[in-house]
Amino acid sequence: MIPEPKGPEAAGLRKRKYSFLKRFAIPADAIAGSLALTHTRCGKTNCRCAQGELHTAWRLTFLDRGRKYVERVPKEWIEEVRQLVEFGREFQEATRAVFTANARLFVLARKQARR
Asked: For 20, which of 9, 54, 57, 94 could close a Cys bridge (C-beta 3.0–4.6 Å)?
């Protein structure tokens, strides 16, 4: 079993780690991806976009098993999807922070065990 590292650096890492763990449970609705406003042409010769006034559409881009997906998001869903994507981003950042804190705590434990 890995011993608990001691000292102010270890205490700070544990504090940061547990603050994230308290804040985030596994989110049921969060989305891992990005939301972007795109401008496109539809291809119809008599459409306004043929004269330069492009169509706008919101797109959600995400990866699944290494494959990229791009899905159109209806205008009435934009705010909800934006919040879910932001929560997904915060959750991923918190997860990375916890994993990094765990790795750094492991390094501290190894250094302290050698002394």
From this structure: 94
Q: Read off the tokens for 83.
A: 């919040």
Q: Tell me the C-alpha distance between 115 and 42, whole Å.
A: 68
Query: In which element (H, E) is residue 77 found?
Result: none
Domains of the chain by residue range: 8-114
pLDDT, tens only, 23-81:
777 666 888 999 999 998 888 888 998 888 899 999 999 998 899 999 999 999 999 99
Name the residue with tokens 């306004």: 48
User: Do residues 32 and 64 lie in contact, with contact meaning Cβ atoms separated by under 8 Å?
Assistant: no
- Cβ atoms of 55 and 39 within 8 Å: the answer is yes
**Rounded distance between C-alpha atoms, residue 58 and residue 41, angstroms:** 14
Q: How far from the centroid of its chain's Cα atoms is residue 32's Cα?
A: 5
CB 30 within 8 A of CB 87: yes
What is d(CA 39, CA 57) in angstroms, rounded to the nearest whole number? Answer: 7
Strand, helix or coil at 66?
coil
